[in-house]
Amino acid sequence: MATQESPPPGTSSAMRNAFGTVLSALILLLIGVLAFSIRLFSVIKYESVIHEFDPYFNYRVTQFLSKNGIYEFWNWFDDRTWYPLGRVIGGTVYPGLTLTAGTIWWALNAINIPLSVETVCVFTAPVFSAFASWATYLLTKEVKGSGAGLAAAALLAMVPSYISRSVAGSYDNEAVAIFALIFTFYLYIKTLNTGSLFYATLNALAYFYMVCSWGGYTFIINLIPMHVLLCIVTGRYSPRLYIAYAPLVVLGTLLAALVPVVGFNAVLTSEHFASFLVFIIIHVVALVYYIKGLLSPKMFKVAVTLVVSIGMVVCLIVVAVLVALVASSPTGGWSGRSLSLLDPTYASKYIPIIASVSEHQPPTWPSYFMDINVLAFLVPAGIIACFSPLSDASSFVVLYIVMSVYFSGVMVRLMLVLAPAACIMSGIALSQAFDVFTASIKYQLGRSSNSKDDAEDNTSTNNAPKDDSSSGKIDKGEEVAKERSSKKGKKKEREPADKPSVKSKIAKKRALVLPLEASIVALLLLIMLGAFYVIHCVWAAAEAYSAPSIVLTSQSRDGLHVFDDFRESYAWLSHNTDVDDKVASWWDYGYQTTAMANRTVIVDNNTWNNTHIATVGTAMSSPEKAAWEIFNSLDVKYVLVVFGGLIGYPSDDINKFLWMVRIGGGVFPHIKEADYLRDGNYRIDSEATPTMLNCLMYKLSYYRFVETDGKGYDRVRRTEIGKKNFKLTHFEEVFTSHHWMVRIYKLKPQKNRIRGKAKKLKLKTSSGLDSKPVKKNPWI
Amino acid sequence: MVKSTSKDAQDLFRSLHSAYSATPTNLKIIDLYVVFAVFTALIQVLYMALVGSFPFNSFLSGVLSCIGTAVLAVCLRIQVNKENKEFKDLAPERAFADFVLCNLVLHLVIINFLG
Predict the structure, then answer these.
(1) pLDDT attached to residue B10
(2) Which residues cross the membrane (chain B) (predicted)?
């Protein structure tokens, strides 16, 4: 890529070059160390533990992989989850993350470094974020030069949005996927700049790694065609564009179809249609350019009129067929998740599960400032810097930031995709600003000491990377052909040093030089801006994003309280129940239960089967008897609820209960949300509706709660509970954790005999029930 | 009107033919290879239309291998063509080596996906 002639050794420019290279290598190393260490706060404050919910599933899969090998993993059918349906792990999981961690574990153990699987899993994310910042350096270097690259890498190492999903312990797909995303984009830009088929192959392989890692790969396969279309439309078609795009589509589609999760979706779903459409378009455009080069202009016009008339008819036929195919499927071929991105109101209308996840809500304005901080107003400056001059690479980055801003506005989880784009833009802006100011200072100081050496000054407009002593070198015309079209911003250095261009150079420089005091103050202010950014990032990493959420802490007058209830209850489950016992809980806790307690669950965080989740939701919303029936039909032995009323933990099941009602009501119409609300308000105090006070969730959460303080004051809902003294008829309490956060109940077995009184009552009640079939009811 | 269009069409074909015969032989060989690959892909699509698309992965890998080699051959042609100023200092051996590497990767994936 760097086609500068190497200066003769020993000259000052060669020394500067070498010094600059060594310096930037050192800086990159430090950036990697920074990215790794800023993510270690949770390990220091708590312990080396896996966080949240989804990482526990990935951890369990990695354990299985490390124990049984890759063939077992590929064909694994998991019967300990989604009982009685089970789940095909090999075909429904994105294997990139687990395969990566498994490979690292295997490699380390092969050279006799005995790290446990858990340690490897916990630290995978920080290691890959160091790689991601290096990839950002490479990408931004392709766009604007190494100065901007270093700035962007430093920004990405610390940006809070990326930290939030890649702290040590957050063992989730995004940990690896963001690195794969940036690296794929880097290879695409590299191919675009150099036109080398080798990098095109690497690009396809990096795209394959991205498909393995995350469902967000559809972002790549839609962004790149959009960029190709943009280049064609703005008249920037070149053979390099063809080489960058066409092999990627063919190889990429094949490689994506190789991953079992994607399979034939790679050619059948609407998410990929954009790439095929642009594939056809680029071939048409390439053919047009070829024929144009072949024919004389007059003949070309004739060809155009002929082709257009025939081509129109063919096009219309094909489009009609396509439209008919697409319209025949109810969602137009899009998956639910993608549709909810395109139409933000789709999920709340049709798929309540997608709407209920808090990560899928639109972000608030303050979250932009929290997550990308200072970058939020450096980005527009970067966009402007990208336009002067506009190259293929910089148009790509502009398109990337625009698209990611839109998608981050739809779902707060996608702020993560915005973070690298914002860092690249801000790096470009910062680097340009520094260049202008330092050039002004140099020029002013040089002018004040009456130096006539204008040609030695760095240019002030286009970006001259700090470590590149290009001022002394004026490269010859060979580079012009290759670099002119890629326009990496080194235009000034490429022009031959003849008089008129030098004069225009000086004239341009004079126009952009700022006064000395202004430049110095501006430099100082920029450095302070960077300092504020660093302070914010470290604070965000330490305070906001390092909570493992499986262990809670709170500061009180008498020191630090640690709430380890979750692990306590999972340990109780694993020690005090049989291996084959089934545990029912809300789907949030499924992954943790299978991973830590090693018990079979009914529903878990994968949420692939809405009806099954609705069954559990209905059971939680029904009175005890009906709930017992439902759970008994699912062979459930234990029911687990999370209750935060004693200590004020707000994410407990009572707060999530309305979602259970909505999801259950979506499938079983006898559950109506209005039955649980008093005048539209959700209450659990004495004004609550009788349906609410009798439902299983209320009873299991508040059973014996009045014994804690005599009044039953719920610290989260801030009222006393409605029904205080009641007995459970169909369940018995077997475990309540130390701070009452997790409560486990066992289903009472059916009685062996129905007594005489029950027979009489049965006759009485059976005459009243017409529609329902008469069931044996042993409880009366 | 029709006569002038047909005359135009004949003129067009003749000028196309004469311009194309001026291209060097090695490029013509590559063009022939591309045409052959696309033709094979079309035959496969016709076969699928007659016989049905099961097993789909075999059909997909067959068609995509033809289209893939066609695309890669076009890329090779772009890089080897002496008229392309952008690739003036790219040695044709390097271009061919890249072509072979990319084809290797493509066919490795094809064989894996063929089923």
Answers:
(1) 80
(2) 30-50, 56-76, 96-114
A303 near B CB under 8 A: yes
Of A182-196, A197-211, A485-499, A683-697, least confident by mean pLDDT is A485-499
* pLDDT surpasses 50 at A663: yes
pLDDT tens digits for A353-402? 666 677 777 888 888 888 888 898 899 999 999 998 888 899 999 999 99
State the pLDDT at residue A712. 84
State in Å, rounded, how far the first CA of chain A is from the last one: 83
Phi, psi of A561 (to 5 degrees): -100, 135
Neighbours of A732 (CB within 10 A): 11
- Of A585 and A776, the structure prediction assigns the larger pLDDT to A585
pLDDT in tens, A539-559: 999 888 888 888 888 888 888
Q: Is the dihedral of CA A252, A98, A339, A163 positive or negative?
A: negative
Residues of B in contact with A481 (CB under 8 A): 85-86, 88
Distance between CA atoms of residues A6 and A472, nearest Å:
12
Residue whose C-alpha is closest to residue A459's, from A516, A390, A510:
A510
Q: What chain B residue is nearest to A478 in terms of C-alpha separation?
A: B89
- Contact call for A264 and B71, based on CB within 8 A: no
Flag if A254 and B109 touch (Cβ within 8 Å).
yes
User: Which residue in the set B11, B102, B110 is minimally distant from A197, CB to CB?
Assistant: B102
Q: Cα(A693)–Cα(A724) distance, rounded to whole angstroms?
A: 10
Burial class (CB in 10 A: 0-12, 13-18, 19+), A242: buried
User: 3-state SS string over A744-769?
Assistant: EEEECCCCCCCCHHHHHHHHHHHHHC
According to DSSP, residue A38 is labeled: G
Element (H, E) at A615: helix A610-621
Output the CA torsion B22→B24→B29→B31 (10° steps).
-60
The residue count for chain B: 115
Report yes or no: B79 at the A interface, CB cutoff 8 Å.
yes
In the prediction, which pLDDT does A583 show? 93
Q: Are A257 and B109 in contact (CB under 8 A)?
A: no
The Cα–Cα gap between A2 and A9 comes to: 17
Q: Are A108 and A115 in contact (CB under 8 A)?
A: yes
Q: Following DSSP, what letter does each residue of A210-221 receive, concatenated?
A: HHHH-TTHHHHH
Q: Which of A71-85, A116-130, A695-709 tops mean pLDDT?
A: A116-130
**Do residues A743 and A644 lie in contact, with contact meaning Cβ atoms separated by under 8 Å?**
no
Residue A492 above 70 pLDDT?
no
Closest CA to A586 of A650, A642, A662, A670: A642
Quick check: B54 pLDDT over 60?
yes
B45 at the A interface (CB within 8 A)? no
How confident is residue A495, by pLDDT bands cut at 50, 70 and 90? very low
By Cβ distance, the residue of A195, A196, A257 closest to B113 is A257
Q: What's the pLDDT tens digit per position in A444-470? A: 888 777 554 444 444 444 433 333 333
Alpha helices in A668-714 (DSSP H): 690-694, 696-702, 706-709
What values do phi and psi take at A445, rounded to 5? Answer: -65, -40
| Residue B113 amino acid letter | F
A282 interaction partners in chain B (CB closer than 8 Å) = none
Report how far residue A716's alpha carbon sits from residue A705's, in angstroms, rounded to the nearest whole number.
14
Q: What is the pLDDT of residue A501?
A: 44
Single-letter residue type at A341? L
ipTM of the complex: 0.93
Q: Report the predicted TM-score, pTM, of the whole model to 2 decimal places.
A: 0.84
Residue A540 CA to residue A41 CA, distance in Å, equals 10
Q: In the 8-state DSSP scheme, what is residue A596?
A: I
